[in-house]
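Structure first, sequence second, as always.
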């Protein structure tokens, strides 16, 4: 059985309101259709990352860590101020969703100490972060995620 990440991008507006952003799949995944499994109540267009890379999962949240990777310093849990969409989607997964966390997009791309260059771990994820940091200054763009098995 595989493990998938449910990764959502949030942007802060009006000082303190977080909103979940829809993914521009034609930009991020020009050769793929977005996955929107039957379990979702909302379409899969909130999914910014469609990969299944256990080296990335190990680095982000110590999930499927079979290679002894030192995980990054994850902010655990779904943020208390997460958007309504993110909270609803996370609640939907219930006990099947595990290891929730979040990171500031700028920190992940520019400051995190990855075990090796990020483009070697997952070029698609690196490309996504390159897009995200253009959406706003540090502290205004974050990824919120959880996993399922």
């Amino acid at each position: 059985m595989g493990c998938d990440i449910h990764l959502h991008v949030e942007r802060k507006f009006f000082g303190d309101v977080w909103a979940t952003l829809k993914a521009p799949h034609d930009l991020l995944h020009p050769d793929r259709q977005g996955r929107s499994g039957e379990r979702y109540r909302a379409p899969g267009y909130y999914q910014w990352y469609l990969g299944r890379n256990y080296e990335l999962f190990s680095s982000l949240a110590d999930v499927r860590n079979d290679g002894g990777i030192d995980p990054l310093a994850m902010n655990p849990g779904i943020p208390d101020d997460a958007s309504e969409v993110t909270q609803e989607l996370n609640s939907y997964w219930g006990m099947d969703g595990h290891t929730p966390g979040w990171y500031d997009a700028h920190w992940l791309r520019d400051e995190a100490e990855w075990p090796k260059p990020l483009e070697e771990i997952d070029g698609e994820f690196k490309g996504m972060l390159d897009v995200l940091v253009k959406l706003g200054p540090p502290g205004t763009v974050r990824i919120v995620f959880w996993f399922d098995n």
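Margin note: Confidence is low (pLDDT under 50) at residues 32-43.
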